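Spend some time on this chain, C-alpha cells included, and walk me through the fold:

. . .
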Amino acid sequence: MLKLQHSTLKALLTQIIATLIIGLFVMAQSTITLSLFEWSVLQGLLAGLISYCLRMPAWWIFIHLAFIPLAIATLALEISSLWFLSLFLCLLLIYGKTYKTQVPLYLSSKNVNVVLDTLLPKQEQFSFVDLGSGCGGLLNNLAKVHKNGLFYGIESAPLPLLISKLRSLPNHGSCQIFWGSFWEYDLSQYDVVYAYLSPIPMESLWRKVSKEMRPGSLLISNTFLIPGVTPHKSIQLNDFSNSTLYLWKI
C-alpha cells in the first residue's frame, strides 16, 4: 500500500514541478507570447515527459498530458461545475478507489472462461476467488459449468459490485460476491486465486499469497507477471488484447 501511495505522490510532484518550470520560464522571458491555453499545452507536454522519464505507468503519462490543458479549456468554456461533480460521482461508482489501488476495471475475455474451464477440477470440490471481480461475468459463467465449485468475488467499486450481486442471484448457492479490498481477506481458504489487476500491486500480492495460500493451491494472473518470480506455466489466450494467463503452483 505504501508503494501505491508513493506512485500517487510522484504524480502530484510531477504536476507541481512542470507547472513551476513553465511559470518560471514565463516570468523570466518576454519574447515569447503565447495564450494561456498554449502555455498549458507546454506544461502538459513537460509533465508527460517527466512522467515518462520517471517510468510511470502509461495511463499516468496521458493524464499528465491532458490534465492542465483540459482544466484551462473547461474554465474558458464556463462549463457548470455540476457536470464535473456528476462525472466524478459516476467514475467513483464505476472505478471506486482506483486512484489509491491503481487497479483499473478490467473485464476478462470469453477466452479466459474457456481456458479456466480446462484448468479447474471436474469432480472434486474446490473454492475459487476472483480478486477484483468487476461485474461478475467470469464467476457466474464458471459457476454454471462447475457445480462442484464454490465461487467468490471481492470487489470494491460500488456499481460493478451491485451488477455482480444481481447477476449472481441465480447461482447464489455457489457464487457469492463480497464488498471491500481483497487485501483485507485471508486467501488461505481458497484452492484457486484469480487476479486481473495491474503491474503495480503484483509484488505485494505475491507476498500476501506466499504468506496465506495453502501448499498445492493455484494462483492465476491475467496479463501481469510477478517481478522476479517465474510462473510454472503460461497460456496464451489469443483474445482481443492478446493477453496471457500465468500460473503459479504454491
About this structure: The chain is about 50% helix and 15% strand. Residues 2-79 form one domain. Confidence is low (pLDDT under 50) at residues 1-5.
